[in-house]
Amino acid sequence: MLRVTRLRYGFPIGLFLFFFLDGILGEAFPKQLFHYPYAMSSYLVVLWLVFAVFFEDPIKIPLGVWAAVAGGLFDLYYTGIFGIFVFVFPIVVILTRACYRAFPVNFLSGLLVYFIDITVVSVLSYFGNLYVHTTSASFTDLFVYSLAPTLAYNLAAYVILYFPIQRLYNYLKS
Fold this sequence. Notes:
By secondary structure, the protein is mainly alpha-helical. The protein has one domain. The protein has helices spanning 6-28, 30-33, 44-55, 63-79, 84-102, 107-131, 139-173. Helix 6 (107-131) crosses helix 7 (139-173). The chain is globular. The chain starts with 5 loop residues before the first helix and ends with a helix. It is found in: Cell membrane. It holds the Pfam family MreD. Its main location: membrane. Belongs to the MreD family.
């Protein structure tokens, strides 16, 4: 149960801050992120959710609910198609919790788990978009032109933000 701590208010604030930061970075650096034929997708919301799974102990956050809410907002605000990320973000939380039980929580295992999570998000969103006919790219194009740059960008964000966010979570839990 989530006790009355700073984390109770800090987690949603951080989630929505990262939600808007995804869009701000995409708008501020369009030539760097979306240079044809490559396209990088910023998934800082997923990063915040993954960090929440890593650093939430002993306080339990209702991450499934928060992931679905963030996914719905992500769908409506960024894609315009409601329903893909509403399901993908909670799946990522479930996957991360399963990996959390299998691996010790440290920087390198977290990097591996985040690598898996971003791959899952990209592939599931590709199949969702393929299903509703909003993409015609091949699976090979996804891996070469979208997934590889997306992984590079998001893993760099993980490396840069891991220790500051770990300190932030420790502060919010105290």
